[in-house]
Amino acid sequence: MRFGIWALVHGSRGALQDPEEPYDASWERNLALVQEAERLGYDSTLVAQHTINPHHAPLDQLEAWTSAAALAASSSRIEIITAIKPYLYHPVVLAKMALQIEHISRGRFAINLVNAWNRPELEKAGIGFAEHDERYAYGREWISVVEPLLRGETVSYRGQYFNVDDYTLRPADPYRPRPRIYVGGESEPARALVADHGDVWFINGQPLDDVRALIADVASRPREAPPLTFGLSAFVIARATEAEAQAALQRLFDLAKLDAPIRAIQRANTDPQSVMAQTMAKTPRVGSNGGTAAGLVGSYDQVAERIRAFGAAGIDLFMLQFQPFEAEMRRFAAEILPRVRRL
Known about the structure:
The strands form three sheets. Strands 1-2-3-4-7-8-9-12 form an eight-stranded parallel barrel, surrounded by seven helices. The protein has helices spanning about 25-40, 65-75, 90-105, 120-125, 130-150, 190-195, 210-220, 240-255, 260-270, 275-280, 300-315, 325-340, and strands at about 1-5, 45, 80-85, 110-115, 155-160, 165, 180-185, 200-205, 230-235, 235-240, 295-300, 315-320. It is built from twelve helices and twelve strands. The radius of gyration is 19 Å and the shape is globular. By secondary structure, the chain is α/β, with parallel strands linked by helices. It starts with a strand and ends with a helix.
């Protein structure tokens, strides 16, 4: 069982106007955050990719791929997972970038393939925002070019979107066959894509029974590669007692109400066919990508036991959010990680 943190590429995850966590998406903060996470024993960090802030466009936004390269050079153990939206990079260019960061990190790099939900990010750039299933068709062709290039193979490909002739990238990966590939998304095209091309499926935070059903569906699908593993996004609020945790949750709910005008714009910008958006609308929650819907809110013992239950259901990696982030990340390392290990 592994534990990771979301890099703060667009600041606070739960409430943007929290006096205990002033908005800060700077490179300096993210560098310090990831280096501290590594020292505390976290296994991974996820650097989400946005070119403009998806919550509120006037706010700052960290650039994912240049930051990932710098994080690779500034750390020694932690896995660096960087999201990629295929429409933003040609697959040959992206594969070359990924292999370079794999070299810089000495075998600690991974990509997280996502197929975009924030309409203005692509439309305002003149790229265009295709219909949901077409984005996944594009992403399937895209990863069909990227994956063999990452393996050091010579690629010739003819498809609807890409034509590649006799292309090989050097130097190849000296540490393993290729960097790990994570895939996000829970629609039927996303499930088929991860079954065919992924190593790890990232699931948005949601109740345990729903996660069990998702894992059972995708794990049952035929594939030629080794068995999939599974990751879960979750926002953690852990305290000495359940009552304290619930009070902290209520505080964030109250603060999040101040963000209502911003969230309304975000909802209008989100593809209504996005299963992530549909799932998150079912359960009141704090945080992105499902947030507290995974139920990791409670006493230290309760949170550790719920993590154990998710692990028994098949979750291998927990990608965690906190607020205020640094203080609660330290609390989790001190109080929850030892309990999970004992369990």
